[in-house]
Amino acid sequence: MSSSSTIPPRPTTPAPGTGSDGIGPSPVAKPLNPNSPFAPRPVATPPRQPVSLAAAIQPAKPAAPGAPATAATPAAAGGLASSRPTLTPAQFTFFEKLIYELSGMRFEANKSYFLASKIDLRIQALGLKDFDAYMAYLNTPTGRTEYGHLVDEVSINETFFYRHEPQLQAFREHLLLPLAQARRTQGQKNLRIWSAASSTGDELYTLALMLRDSGLWGKDLSWDLVGTDICHDALEKARNGVYRRYNIRNIPPALLQSYFTHDPLSAGGETWQLKAEIRSSCKFQEGNLMDNARCAALGRFDFIFCRNVLIYFDEPSKEKAVQHLANNLTEDGYVLLGHSENIYSQRHILRPVKEYAAAIAYQKAPPGTPKL
């Protein structure tokens, strides 16, 4: 959508017997008595002028020095006003650099409004005055305990069960079942799966349900299912395994009935909780793809899911993250990425498995593959 487009007034179609604007008598109709209840009434206020879509969605201009962070700024068109928290360029630079150092996530300048709204929630939670006060607090020894809360707040945890089903089906048919059979042939009894940005657990629990639905759980195979995330709140939700209708909407009905407990009267609306046997099969822990020691401590995995994560990294951070994924991958294992992610510049580390493109899968690049 073009940022220069405008929102025009809603077009009207004149009703029979009305004027060209659809209000009042038409030029050929007999004039109504001014006292008639059907006579047109004077308009109390002039109609609203068209508002530029760009003006409606763009961040407010930085407040003047000394003004409150949430000061309202009148809009240029339509007399609209905004009370959106706004970061000055210096404040944005401070927070953007800090978040990048802590998590590897890079926020561009056009996300200033997003950061401001998220950081403002932390300011309110701490009872601080404004962004400057929060910055000062973060620079104190005590403020370092706030780093985790800040990263939690700005982390994007959009996820749900059976997300992007075509990829999951390709994974099941072309990667999961053949590798499980290969492990049996090799005499290996244990396979490991890592959800490298597990958020609230929807992805890892989906894989646990798929293993059961495929008949691969138990018998002669055992599975280690590990989920990591930098967001403490998301990890706690994952361990509890309680979800709303939005999260579970794609789960096959038979699996939903077998492995979830439905509570229609839960506070805040109905919920579905995974049964203990599923929750106990998945381990969730803090993890950061920028942390060398934590990644190394996880060990090797046959499958690594890292979907919709690298899109938030710049090239140096992406290079580091992809290298960690490769280091944690078995020699014949697979990394599965999101459909919108591009690691072309890292093909010397992971190469795409073109024969199973629908799975969006990668394997270790052959030793000596040159860097592009």
Could you give the topology of this structure?
Blueprint: E1 6-7, E2 51-52, H1 53-57, E3 73-74, E4 81-82, H2 89-103, H3 112-126, H4 131-138, H5 147-154, H6 165-186, E5 190-195, H7 202-213, E6 222-229, H8 232-240, E7 242-243, H9 245-248, H10 253-259, E8 260-263, E9 271-274, H11 276-279, E10 282-286, H12 292-298, E11 301-306, H13 315-327, E12 329-337, E13 350-352, E14 361-364
Parallel strand pairs: 5-6, 5-11, 6-10, 11-12
Antiparallel strand pairs: 1-2, 3-4, 7-9, 8-9, 12-14, 13-14
Helix pairs in contact: 3-5
What do the pLDDT scores average to? 81
How many helix segments?
13
Instruction: Extract low-pLDDT stretches.
Output: 1-82
Biggest sheet, in brief? 7 strands, mixed
Q: Going across the major beta sheet, what is the strand order? A: 10-6-5-11-12-14-13
Number of strand segments: 14
Distance between the termini: 34 Å
Description:
The chain has 372 residues and is α/β, with parallel strands linked by helices. Among the domains are: 66 residues, Orthogonal Bundle (Chemotaxis Receptor Methyltransferase Cher, domain 1), CATH 1.10.155; 164 residues, 3-Layer(aba) Sandwich (Rossmann fold). Helices cover 35% and strands 16% of the residues. The protein is built from 13 helices and 14 strands. The strands form four sheets. It has a seven-stranded mixed sheet, sandwiched between helices. It has a three-stranded antiparallel sheet with strand order 7-9-8. Strands 1-2 form a two-stranded antiparallel ribbon. Strand 3 and strand 4 form a beta hairpin. The longest helix is centred in the middle third of the chain and has 22 residues. The radius of gyration is 28 Å and the shape is globular. The N terminus is likely disordered.
